[in-house]
């Protein structure tokens, strides 16, 4: 199986067939599993084998298919499926950390990730230092011998800054810290995170892995030792495990993830090029545009700009007019969906942030994040240009 390329793994890896030899993966909607004898039950609790399950919070055949398939695609030894992206982020952090530990994190983070690092971890005696994720000098200055984790998004949400993964990993590993990457924007299709130095890769599977806005889900990937020795004991006892129904949707979603994400990425580039320099926009931010400050870094690490771009209409008033004039893009807050979605971060996902922090992170009142879907790219560009005419 290791010889297969990602697209083949996405269709076949991890498949477990029942006695009926079904073609499409079966869904096992069961929380429990029957033991033939009391001795079998005792043995299962002592040490469960590869294909032996105890309780769906610990594992389930359909969930295991998803874990094995996404691990194969990512090139990770193992994976743990979680109830949401935030269950994955908080679980990965909490399973490793204890009071007195130190974490260094990029400041430009998804709002809920920032809450976990800033409000939750610190309440349990973990010290967190925030740095400008694109500035290696700040990482170097903040990392200490007691730093346990370096945490960042491969491409930040919503300002789309690209982190120097190998650079940060080298500095973190020099002090013995673990490198955890929230890799949503790079997507499993383009990810080379483990090869570039990440120790743990985290996805909100709600985004490109499902890709159709149906499920809330997440996954933590890494070495077998980390996933089964550190993450699993924490997750299975604290309750953030994935439902088998969700796992089944994701298994089927993975089959066409590569095709979807590549098409969405091509459309995002088409739209970014079509909007760049528009007189009513103060900025068009897309890591796949040569004008992006980390364009080369993004090409070296990810090889593409991804499915999300951001535009700045200059003011909240102009951005609201633009949003209200859109015909295809939906005003919502998911991303990686088949449907194109426009999000004004300053008034929605990042509303909670104080004004100075928003300004510092480039979350201006006129900023609109555009998640590009599977519609015709010319229709999408026309929709945006027409909406800009209305501003
Ligand atoms: C969406 C998202 C999350 C949280 O995922 P949920 O599935 O909504 O819990 C975390 N990090 C990033 C970068 C995201 O985009």
Automatic annotation (TrEMBL):
Modification sites for N6-(pyridoxal phosphate)lysine: 207
Catalytic reaction annotation: O-succinyl-L-homoserine + hydrogen sulfide = L-homocysteine + succinate
Top-level EC class as recorded in UniProt: transferase
UniProt key word Amino-acid biosynthesis: yes
Pathway: Amino-acid biosynthesis; L-methionine biosynthesis via de novo pathway; L-homocysteine from O-succinyl-L-homoserine: step 1/1
UniProt keywords, alphabetically: Amino-acid biosynthesis, Methionine biosynthesis, Pyridoxal phosphate, Transferase
Pfam families in UniProt: Cys_Met_Meta_PP
Taxonomic superkingdom: Bacteria
UniProt keyword Ligase present: no
EC number(s) reported in the record: 2.5.1.-
Any GO molecular function: transferase activity, transferring alkyl or aryl (other than methyl) groups
Gene Ontology CC terms: cytoplasm
SUPFAM superfamilies (UniProt xref): PLP-dependent transferases (SSF53383)
Cofactor(s) needed by this chain: pyridoxal 5'-phosphate
Biological process terms in GO annotation: 'de novo' L-methionine biosynthetic process; homocysteine biosynthetic process; transsulfuration
Cited HAMAP family: MetZ (MF_02056)
Function: Catalyzes the formation of L-homocysteine from O-succinyl-L-homoserine (OSHS) and hydrogen sulfide.
Subunit organization: Homotetramer.
NCBIfam families referenced in this protein's UniProt entry, alphabetically: O_suc_HS_sulf
Family from the record: Belongs to the trans-sulfuration enzymes family. MetZ subfamily.
Protein name: O-succinylhomoserine sulfhydrylase
Organism: Loktanella salsilacus
């Amino acid at each position: 199986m290791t010889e297969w390329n990602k697209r083949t793994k996405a269709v076949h890896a991890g498949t477990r067939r029942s006695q009926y030899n079904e073609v499409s993966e079966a869904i096992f909607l069961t929380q429990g599993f029957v033991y033939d004898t009391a001795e079998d039950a005792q043995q299962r609790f002592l040490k469960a084998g590869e294909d032996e399950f105890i309780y769906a919070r610990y594992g389930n055949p359909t969930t295991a298919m998803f874990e094995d398939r996404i691990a194969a695609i990512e090139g990770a030894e193992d994976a743990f499926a979680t109830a949401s992206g935030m269950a994955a982020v908080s679980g990965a952090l909490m399973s490793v950390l204890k009071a007195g530990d130190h974490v260094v994190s990029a400041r430009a983070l998804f709002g809920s990730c920032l809450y976990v690092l800033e409000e939750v971890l610190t309440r349990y005696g973990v010290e967190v230092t925030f740095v400008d994720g694109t500035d290696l000098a700040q990482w170097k200055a903040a990392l200490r011998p007691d730093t346990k984790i370096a945490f960042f998004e491969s491409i930040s949400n919503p300002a789309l800054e690209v982190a120097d993964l190998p650079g940060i990993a080298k500095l973190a590993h020099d002090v013995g810290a673990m490198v955890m990457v929230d890799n949503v924007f790079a997507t499993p299709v383009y990810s080379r995170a483990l090869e570039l130095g990440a120790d743990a890769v985290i996805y909100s599977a709600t985004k490109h892995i499902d890709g159709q806005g149906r499920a809330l889900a997440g996954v933590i990937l890494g070495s077998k030792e980390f996933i089964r020795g550190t993450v699993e004991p924490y997750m299975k006892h604290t309750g953030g495990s994935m439902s088998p129904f969700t796992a089944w949707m994701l298994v089927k979603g993975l089959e066409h993830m590569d095709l979807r994400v590549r098409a969405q990425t091509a459309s995002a580039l088409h739209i970014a090029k079509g909007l760049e320099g528009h007189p009513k926009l103060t900025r068009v931010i897309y890591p796949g545009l040569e004008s992006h400050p980390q364009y080369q870094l993004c090409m070296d690490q990810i090889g593409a700009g991804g499915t999300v771009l951001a535009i700045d209409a200059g003011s909240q008033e102009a951005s609201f007019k633009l949003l209200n004039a859109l015909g295809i893009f939906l005003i919502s807050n998911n991303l990686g969906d088949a449907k194109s979605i426009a999000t004004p971060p300053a008034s929605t996902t990042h509303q909670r942030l104080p004004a100075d922090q928003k300004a510092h992170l480039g979350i201006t009142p006129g900023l609109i994040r555009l998640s590009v879907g599977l519609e015709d790219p010319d229709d999408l560009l026309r929709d945006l240009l027409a909406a800009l005419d209305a501003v």
